[in-house]
Amino acid sequence: MQQHDRKLLFDEKKIAGDIEKVAKAICSDFSKDDLAEIAFLGIQLKGLPFARRIVESIKKSSNLEIPLGKLDISMYRDDIGMRKTLPQIHETDIPFDINNRTIILVDDVLHTGRTIRAALDAMSDYGRPAMIKLAVLVDRGMREFPIQADYVGEKHKVSGTEHISVSWKELEGIDAVYLSQKKTGV
Q1: CA-wise closest residue to 152 among 58, 50, 62
Q2: When comparing pLDDT for 80 and 130, which is higher?
Q3: What H or E segment, with its residue span, contains residue 165?
Q4: For FRET with 185, which of 41, 64, 125, 145 sits at 20 to 30 Å CA-CA?
Q5: What letter does residue 41 receive in the DSSP assignment?
Q6: Which pLDDT tens digit goes with each residue over 141-186?
Q7: Is residue 6 within 8 Å of 172, Cβ to Cβ?
Q8: What is the spatial distance between Cα 139 and Cα 84, in angstroms, rounded to a whole number?
Q9: Residue 64 maps to which CATH number?
Q10: Is residue 72 included in any domain, yes or no?
């Protein structure tokens, strides 16, 4: 999508504030001992920068080393055979045991819930967490699955013809959240 086809919703400063908001909410939900036992899984590709920054924020405030892994859900999607192109596969790297551990699953945008459903399926191949919590930068509404985030940076309801996308410095060179019209016929 071309640059002029989208509208800036949130800039770098707003995103940084939302990261702090989510990190503080997570810290307030757990005692220091329990916080030391949680681990984060960033959904590839766009959930990983958000997860890294939450972990960094928690480390700054608590001085705890929180484990971080990355999860690719490409082969768990329910539309894999319906797309015109094959999905790009990214690395899954979970350098900790997820069994009986509280996992904070992290993604950039929560929309239909299908990505999170795929992530839950993918995680089950690696073990059985004691609890899974969900953190997202933007909740745009319009669920198709009964999935809700435990930690949300921003709620921004949009119509079915609109799309929310997140750009991260690590991936696109800028931190920004954009609103655009969905392309038709895709």
Answers
A1: 50
A2: 130
A3: strand 162-167
A4: 145
A5: E
A6: 999 999 999 999 999 999 889 999 999 999 999 999 999 998 765 4
A7: no
A8: 27
A9: 3.40.50.2020
A10: yes
